[in-house]
Amino acid sequence: MCPADKKIHNSQECSRNIMPVRDALEVLNGRWKLPILIALSFGKKRFKEISREIPGITDKMLSKELKMLEANELISRTVYDDFPPVVEYDITKHGETLWKVIEELRNWGISHRKKIMGKKVEMV
């Protein structure tokens, strides 16, 4: 990334730094993917359990986001041969590699809320 002393970079160096960040944002874009990953960090869950834990998400949007997270190998979907069929979602090892990023975003969000909104934020 850009060094702290803010040296002038050439265009090629800039592109090498921007490209992987854009790739990450492409995979994690939107309002719901990170909350879904956080919900699954507490263990395997069925569709309705995830839906209840994330206020405001519609079933249609949850279904779409789960498919995208599965396509990017951040979560797994397991169908059990019961009647009716049982489907569980779980975070993958690849998905777990996002914990440092999520923790840093959480910390930044708390700091930002305090600075900008002047509200006391409880650490949970």
Write the layout of secondary structure elements.
Blueprint: H1 11-28, H2 33-40, H3 47-53, H4 59-71, E1 75-80, E2 86-91, H5 93-96, H6 99-117
Antiparallel strand pairs: 1-2
Summary keywords:
124 residues; 6 helices; two-stranded antiparallel sheet; mainly alpha; Arc Repressor Mutant, subunit A; globular
Strand count: 2
Ends distance: 30 Å
* Oligomer state of the chains in this structure: single chain
Structural class: mainly alpha
- Tally of individual domains: 1
Shape category: globular
Weakly predicted, low-confidence segments: none
The profile of the biggest β sheet is:
2 strands, antiparallel
The strand line-up of the biggest sheet is: 1-2
The Cα radius of gyration reads: 18 Å
Strand proportion: 5-15%
CATH topology: the name is Arc Repressor Mutant, subunit A
| Element-by-element helix/strand order | HHHHEEHH
Into which percent range does the helicity of residues fall? 55-70%
CATH superfamily: Winged helix-like DNA-binding domain superfamily/Winged helix DNA-binding domain
Q: Just give the CATH class.
A: Mainly Alpha
Tell me what the CATH architecture is.
Orthogonal Bundle
Task: Give the overall average pLDDT.
Answer: 89
Can you count the helices? 6
3D structure, described in words:
The radius of gyration is 18 Å and the shape is globular. The chain has helices spanning 11-28, 33-40, 47-53, 59-71, 93-96, 99-117, and strands at 75-80, 86-91. The protein is mainly α and 124 residues long. It has one domain (11-117): Winged helix-like DNA-binding domain superfamily/Winged helix DNA-binding domain (Arc Repressor Mutant, subunit A, Orthogonal Bundle). The protein contains six helices and two strands. A two-stranded antiparallel sheet has the order 1-2.
